[in-house]
Amino acid sequence: MARPAGRIIGHAVAWLGGGRTKSDDTIDPAVGFVIPVKPGQKVSRGQLLGTVHARDAAGAHDGMDALRKAIRLGGRPKPWPLVSHRITRNEIVELG
Questions:
Q1: What does the CA dihedral 16, 1, 92, 63 come to, rounded to 10 degrees?
Q2: What separation in angstroms does the CA of 4 have from each of 1, 31, 57, 76, 80?
Q3: Predicted TM-score of the model (pTM)
Q4: What are 43-79's pLDDT values in tens digits?
Q5: Mean pLDDT, residues 7-25 taken together
Q6: Going by C-beta distance under 8 Å and a sequence separation of 6 or more, which residues neighbour residue 41?
Q7: How many CB atoms neighbour CB 59 within 10 A?
Q8: N or C: where does the chain have the smaller number of CB atoms within 10 Å of the terminal CB?
């Protein structure tokens, strides 16, 4: 199962420094994404689909990679399942 777009963007924000991966991480409020287009919305050629705010060129490059993975064009959007994994004490099982 492919990773949902929201998870891709969420992880990318953390990599850019805009979120925590450990409880003592500092959050950089200047980094992140602006994505004005909503899932299922019709778009036109040349329309801005997203903006990356990063501290350096490497962060901008990584942010663009995340946007390319998260944003898909064409066709009808496939709804994500309400339950994607079953988590027990001993394992995590991907459903579907």
A1: 0
A2: 9, 21, 26, 15, 8
A3: 0.70
A4: 999 999 999 999 999 999 999 999 999 988 887 766 7
A5: 90
A6: none
A7: 19
A8: C
